[in-house]
Amino acid sequence: MGESSEPTSSRRRRLLRSLAAGATLGTAGCMRRLRAATGWESVAPVSVGIKTLPADADPYALRVAQSVAEWFRAGGLESTVTPVAPEELYRQVLLRNDFDAFVGRVPARLRDGDGLYALLHSRFGSEPGWQNPFGYANLDVDDRLADQRTATGETRREALADIQRSVARTQPFSLVAFPDEIRAVRGERFTGWHRSDYGSPLGYLSLDEGWRESAGEGATATATATPADPATLRTVITDRRPTENLNPLAAEFRWAGVLTGLLYDPLGYETESGGVEPWLADGWEFETVDGRPRARVRLREGLTWHDGEPVTAADVALTYALLSDVTLGRTTEGTDTATDSDAAVAAPRFRGRSSLVADAEVLDRRTVEVRFADCTAAVAAGAFTVPVLPEHVWRERTGPASVGGVDFGATSEALVTNNVPPVGSGPFAFERNVPGDRLVFERFDDHFLATDPPADLPGGVDGFPPYERIDVTVVGADETAVSMVTSGDADVTGTAVGAETIPRIGRSEGVDLVVGRSPSPYVVGYNTRRPPLTNPRFRHTLGHLIDRRALVEDVFDGYAWPAASALVGSGLVPSDLQFDGEHPVTPFFGSDGTVDADAARAAFRDAGYEYDDGTLVERD
């Protein structure tokens, strides 16, 4: 008999009718072959790769990522974990958007609620940096983010509550927990460790002298600190990046800004209550003009940069202009685009705060008028917490970045310089560094803390601390850092260490354990620009596959607090988003770290996905 003349489409329909009638095909493999042969559907496995920090760079991130990947796989997803060195991870996540998901910590400026604006507003989705690294776009959230900038009282609280509820449902990131910051300290030479916040420069500036207090004025000092020697605060860290790059604008080198915060002063510091108190500024006065706030900011008298140049209002104005556009209106063709907002290249750090500022005008040598976008004065004051940069140094860095004589378009030198040695106005000045190994700061005796310390400074600071030098040493692991403190070779672990070091700290004579709640939570961040993570129902289901209680117990050894909102600790979390034993919106599918596969499969099917041989797939 010759080849059948039945049309292909008819054969396909006949086979599909057979399937619908219950024809048996023996194996799942045959089923897949039949689907391919008939063209019924083409399927592709759903996969989510997770990038994170290696164990020597973060005590928890890799273990969190491995647990999350295991739960995703239990739900039928293909999931892998890739450890990436810190600066490369942040380049991939923050600058190039080259990721499906990442596990790490988000910066801490969320206490006043407006930190959510930069973290989530869609206007920042195409910009590099910590502002909206997820590429999240939700018009309702955008509207409420704008509302909270202009509202006060209960109206603002409700706007922020609506934002938090939307985020909990749509999951641009799955919040895991707020870790405890664990540090080992020695109290013989300096005291005040337990009252200080070491996520802020103010924590180091509020320390007191220790050996005189404990031994008396006439006592003989220890070998590590004698009256004849300059007092040195010896800190040990596990992050080598600060020894290599001191550019406060470099997103891939700056997760936090404690060390650069000792080099550069802001106009003001945020307080525990969420307000802002003067620092480099002597004070400010707000008024409302055309419905928007303006502030007249007056600098303290006699301020100087570390190179002896005076600090002036022109430095403040240049700082805000540079943060809004690091090219100051230049293009690669050299044409003036100062009025073309699309051509601006915003600094990838401090973007949420700089977006509050419309412009800044010099009124006299010590006075600058800052005009703000549509917001309240209380929100606007957050813009005063950015580091003030010297105009005579940074204006020269607005040209195109160049390597080997090749210009890189709109990328400014300001974003790629390592800024060593730096010129700041802070209480400590750069003395020397050995990249990857050591960093030394010297006290800046022309700082206002030394010459005329004002009363009522934020953070409990009442003048210069008792040491004259900060000596930072880099080591490769938390255990090594703790060993340096227990052996008397360091005063403090400058970076927080993992919970596994606590027994060692507790057994060591003369060493105290300092534990404080971090305002920077661990999250599983999703790249919502990439399918299937573009689907909020898919992300919502992923949120159900994370057992936060198990992570706190098994990974953090209990030294963390699970949460459903990034605003925990601000007093702004609504009652329906309180974490009371379980996530109120995406409770774990299962119990005690074991996934309920049936519940996960049902949720993924509701989100529009199918299973093939136990693997989650999507139809092409």
Automatic annotation (TrEMBL):
Protein name: ABC transporter substrate-binding protein
Family affiliation: Belongs to the bacterial solute-binding protein 5 family.
Molecular functions per Gene Ontology: peptide transmembrane transporter activity
CDD domains linked to this entry: PBP2_NikA_DppA_OppA_like
Domain Solute-binding protein family: 276-615
UniProt cross-references to Pfam families, sorted A to Z: SBP_bac_5
Alphabetic keyword roster: Signal, Transport
InterPro entries xref list: SBP_5, SBP_5_dom, TAT_signal
Record organism: Halosimplex rubrum
An annotated GO BP: peptide transport
